Amino acid sequence: MQKLALIVLSIFFLFSCQKESSDAEKVQFLNSFDHASKSWKNATLSDSFINFINIVGVIEDGEINLDKEIMRTHLASLSYLGDISKRLGNKKDALKYHLACKNKAIYYNRADYQIIANYNLANLGVDENDSKSIIKKFLEESPPYNTKNPSIESPIIYMQALLNAKAGRFAQAKSTINELLEKPYKNIALSKVSHFNFYKGLGEICQLEKKIDLALKHFNDALNLSSDEDYNLLKAETYLLIAESYFSQGEFHKTDSVLQIAIPLAEEDILLRKQTQELYSKLYEKTEDTKNGLSTFYLLREIDNTLNAENNKIQGFIADKLEREADKKLHQARIKYISGIGILSLMLLSLLHFYKQAHNRRNRLELEVSKKRLEVKNKELEVRYKELELTAINKVIDAQEDKEKEFAEILHDNVGANLSALNMFLSTLQKDVPEQKYKHLTKVLGTTILNTRSLSHLLEPPTLKSEGLICAITEKAEELTSDKLNIVVNSPIEFVALEDNLARSLYNTILEFMNNTMRHSEATKMQIDFDLTNNNFLAVKVADNGKGFDTNNIQQSKGLGLNSIRSRVNYFNGTFNIQSSNKGTIINITVPAKVLKQGA
Questions:
Q1: Which of 542, 518, 514 minimizes the C-alpha distance to 530?
Q2: According to a count of CB atoms within 10 Å of the terminal CB, is the N or C end of the chain lower?
Q3: Last residue in a domain, options 406, 427, 459
Q4: Mode of pairing for the β-strands spanning 525-532 and 537-544
């Protein structure tokens, strides 16, 4: 049923080219189309595709005069391109060409090709989601079609009948085809092929109705119309339909027998060969014939490799064509540029005539240009000064953070260790010191140890070093959450690898935002989101529902200072953005990171 549009296309073109043309160029052009249309079904899909693309290009570039024959050639070529793209599995390209055919048919006022395009578009839609509504939509869009020649009119009406069948209107479809069978044809050959298609179509409709016995009868009626050497591809399609009917009924022996008849008939159509082997694959799977199933697999792979090679050839041709078109446009641009230079030269020669009169004015313009250059230079120096200033700020922050880290290590490793040793020594003196004095000393020493540990943790949080930024912020959020402010941390990842300085900077930055929110924003909710982008950047979003502040006065901010934060983030090749209003504040930071461990 899917090949019907191309069969109708061939019949149409046969009738449309009956008048001989005296124009040699036009005859050569139509011969090129005829060559492409004869070879498109077999393994030479790429050659036909290239011929059709060239034909469409010649017409659309206006290199040949439009008349009815050229219009038909244009529409037929677009339809062939759509079918070839579908055969190669490129449904997107198939949709593009069939839509182009439909739009051109509307422009050329060709109802026949509108119906052909709608038929192809409906089949593309059905293949994707089997929706009857799609078919009904295209049936409604198809214009009425009527000619006095049944040889041309009948295939179009037949096509609409099959669309009605796919839409579930079986009785209407069969009634239409039975009426077509009763129409007289002047051309006996066309009468036979038309009746063959009509009986085959009745069989396909009965297949859709699940009336397999009646479907087989109509398929056999179609086959009885042909001689041994007639309509090989039509017979191959019909035998394939019969084999599918037997297969659906579980009659695997009959399926095999019919497929053996179809295989040599389908030799000229690569897609029919593939469909035949695919049915054989299903048959061998059902009958558990592993040996033949493997052979069929290799045959299908060989066919797919052939189709892939054709597809690659087409894609290479398209790439080359686009490159040639780009070169052509570049050449045209160069010509325009050279022409522009010529015109400019003429203008300059004209301007020289007025040189004396414009001398003073030119001096003034040169002075203005010098001023502009000086302004630009001053701005460049200003930018450079800011860069140096930011670099200095970063060095100061680095030094400060290193000192904090060093001080934290001294507190933990030296002072903390000494206090712990003193505590152990004090416990040995319990019997030699009065109880009240011993408790006082123990309390003072315990408070000192606790304060020392808190100061060390504040300077260098242990969780930040051992478990990373996300766990450290989560721990701090739980610590700072209260009845007045609820702090939530969301992250699909557990750990990201960051430079030590960057991790400390981000930790201090987020902690500064937390403290500012608690002290100044009057917020009740605060949310901190961590995420990892596709290009391995850590994205941090901090948001609250507080009263916000004026971001134009960020230089007046306390703590780290937003300018310092922005400088720090830029120093690590990141980005910083802040938005604030009376509904809350949102801060976004991104910095480079490498994910080490994904969360569940």
A1: 542
A2: C
A3: 459
A4: antiparallel
